[in-house]
Amino acid sequence: MTAPAAVTLDGVRRTFPDGTEAVRSVSLTIDEGDYVAVAGPSGSGKSTLLNIVSLLATPDAGNVIIRGTKTACMSDADRARLRARTFSFVFQSFHLVDHLSAYENVQLGLTLSARPDVDPKIALEQVGLAHRMHALPREMSGGERQRTAIARALARDTPIVICDEPTGSLDSESTEMVLDLLDVVHRAGRTLLVVTHDHYVMSRSQRLLKLRDGSVDFGASR
Ligand SMILES: Nc1ncnc2c1ncn2[C@@H]1O[C@H](COP(=O)(O)OP(=O)(O)OP(=O)(O)O)[C@@H](O)[C@H]1O
Ligand SMILES: [Mg+2]
Question: Which CATH superfamily is domain 7-216 in?
């Protein structure tokens, strides 16, 4: 038997109360270990789609199947548990806790995923930030903050890592560092979904998923 796909979407829709059809009947499969860039104009539904994939939002219609588990009939508590054990997140705005050091931010991520046995320092070493482990987010550069967010994702060791514009606010040197780290995550066999407007970031992925007006643009090329 072949392993189930990392993510299967079947006829997924999301319409906001004001009538905006953010995602219109999207069906797609993302294999385990895939590195997928998600692109498309502003408002094309990228973040909404990722929120659905990562079980942060529920679609109005359609099925979301995560590593063989159908999520449609799950309770909110089961969905939250599946989310915590399956997904790590890296966002453009880092989402670090301001009053916690780099070390404590990574540690918090581990506590939330029930992996308190992992040493945050090792994760910070992997991203070249062991020497900054006691720094607060406001004392770090944008690139350092993003590397801390990646250290948190690395340490949590979830099968799927979701990144929404992970290099959006970084200079080219920090972008390169972050993309090299995403390669490390990918080589470790984890599935990566990366929203980006940057053609260079797209070129570093294996596959491009282009959205247009809430639908997948299957004719798209890089
Ligand atoms: N909470 C909401 N309520 C109403 N409309 C929303 C909401 N969130 C998003 N939308 C709308 O849904 C559509 C898709 O939004 P989404 O944030 O998914 O786009 P995006 O592709 O991520 O855009 P960007 O590149 O600017 O981040 C847009 O028209 C947006 O205005
Ligand atoms: Mg977005």
Answer: P-loop containing nucleotide triphosphate hydrolases (3.40.50.300)
CA distance 190 to 159: 5
The sheet with strand 21-30 has its strands ordered as: 21-30, 7-15, 61-66, 69-70
Specify the 3-state DSSP secondary structure of 217: coil
pLDDT digits over 24-58, tens only? 999 999 999 999 999 999 999 999 999 999 999 99
Long-range contacts formed by 127-131: CB under 8 A, 24+ apart: 127/151, 127/154, 127/181, 128/177, 129/102
What pTM, to 2 d.p., does this model score?
Answer: 0.90
Which two three-digit tokens encode residue 100? 């916690």
Distance CA 169, CA 113 (A): 27
Domain residue limits, the chain: 7-216
Structure tokens at 15: 């319409």
Select from 14, 15, 18, 20 the residue to mutate for testing ligand 1; criterion: most ligand atoms less than 8 Å from CB.
20
CA pair distance 137, 99, nearest whole angstrom: 8
124 CA to middle of ligand 1, Å?
Answer: 33
Q: What are the respective helix, strand and coil percentages of the chain, to the nearest 5?
A: 35, 25, 40
Provide CB contacts within 8 A for 41, sequence distance 6+.
212
